[in-house]
Amino acid sequence: MKKPDISFIEKTFLKDEINNETIQFKHFENEYIFDSHQSHHEIKNCLFEGITMEECKEEDSYFLDVVFQNCDLSNMLFYACLFRRVQFINCKLMGTDFSESMFDQVYFKECSCRFANLAFMKNKETHYQQCDFTQASIIETNLKKSTFQECTFHQCELQHAPLYQIDLSSCDLNNIITTPQDIQGAIIDSYQAASLIHLLKVKIKE
């Protein structure tokens, strides 16, 4: 996976740039943005560091070579956006809505994705490392080129999102909400089988 190109970026204020149709080669740090509703943005070659976005929306926008680091994007709406060569590092994404968006060469590391909505997505190459998907929704989403390393799926609803040949052996699958059809062919460790046995609707004799 190619890393985002954020060379030659200029430090400036997001509040001064956010209404521009195109934002490129910028570094934004330690700002609070409230109630910003944007659409058809092009955001390229940018670093967002320590940014908090509250009650904000981005619709039909394009993110290329962008890094979000130590940001709080909880409950933000990214509707029908395209993310290409984007990284989310140690971000709060609680309740963040990515529905009908696309990830292409996107990397998530140490992110809290509790209650996040990743429904109806057409993803390409996407990597998740040490992320928490507790009570998140992953519905009607293409995970074919996704990887998950040391992620948590407590009460995560994963429906119509096949995990065939996806390695989940390092993940916590306790109380995952899925179907036999979706979990079929996933790669798991032997110790994880007990947390998935209920999907077979069998009774374990004591």
Q: What is the average of the pLDDT values?
A: 93
List unreliable stretches of 5+ residues.
none
What separation lies between the terminal Cα atoms? Answer: 47 Å
Determine the fraction of residues in helical runs and give it as a percent range: under 10%
Count the strands? 15
SSE order: EHEEEEEEEEEEEEEEH
Describe the protein's topology.
Blueprint lengths: L9 E2 L2 H4 L4 E8 L2 E3 L2 E3 L2 E8 L2 E3 L2 E3 L2 E8 L7 E3 L2 E8 L12 E8 L16 E4 L7 E3 L6 E4 L7 E3 L20 H4 L23
Parallel strand pairs: 1-2, 2-5, 3-6, 4-7, 5-8, 7-9, 8-10, 10-11, 11-12, 12-14, 13-15
Offer a few descriptive terms.
34% strand, 2 helices, 15 strands, 206 residues, 3-stranded parallel sheet, 8-stranded parallel sheet, mainly beta
What is shown here, in short?
By secondary structure, the chain is mainly beta. It contains two helices and 15 strands. An eight-stranded parallel sheet has the order 1-2-5-8-10-11-12-14, with no helix packed on it. A three-stranded parallel sheet has the order 4-7-9, with no helix packed on it. A two-stranded parallel sheet has the order 3-6.
Describe the fold and architecture:
Helix content is 4%, strand content 34%. By secondary structure, the protein is mainly beta. It has an eight-stranded parallel β-sheet with strand order 1-2-5-8-10-11-12-14, with no helix packed on it. A three-stranded parallel β-sheet has the order 4-7-9, with no helix packed on it. A two-stranded parallel sheet has the order 3-6. The model has no long low-confidence stretch (mean pLDDT 93).
